[in-house]
Write a structure and sequence with these properties.
mainly alpha, elongated, 3 strands, single chain, 2 domains, Arc Repressor Mutant, subunit A
Length: about 120
């Protein structure tokens, strides 16, 4: 498998975890200093994985592992500020199905609003 380093302006731990789940071996922010980018590249070339410790993915894995794949997809779209109708259209689901998923996501995560979910 190739060594894929993600360099993104999005520093959302949820999106970073998704990138790792899809096969990325490293992540650096576009705002990272050149020394960090070089360290990440060197780490990947040596066969390791790289992520700055400020992105605590261990806690993230525990929180989001409770969600189904579809629920994770919906959370990702909520974090991109899509409303329920837009999510339903993008995922070819009914509006009611999206609303049901969001309700279950709130229960599983303990979030009480979209804003809490976005910042979770």
């Amino acid at each position: 498998m190739p060594n894929i380093l993600i360099c993104s302006m999005y520093e959302d731990p949820f999106l970073i975890q998704q990138a790792f789940d899809m096969g990325a071996k490293g992540f650096v922010s576009k705002s990272a200093k050149s020394g960090e980018i070089i360290a990440a590249i060197d780490t990947l070339l040596e066969g390791g994985t790289y992520i700055n410790t400020k992105y605590n993915l261990d806690n993230l894995n525990q929180r989001w592992s409770l969600l189904s794949r579809r629920e994770n997809e919906i959370v990702s779209l909520v974090k991109r500020n899509l409303n329920n109708r837009q999510i339903a259209k993008r995922l070819c689901l009914s509006l009611r199905t999206v609303e049901n998923h969001i309700t279950r996501i709130y229960v599983k995560t303990g979030a009480k609003s979209r804003e809490e979910l976005i910042n979770f």
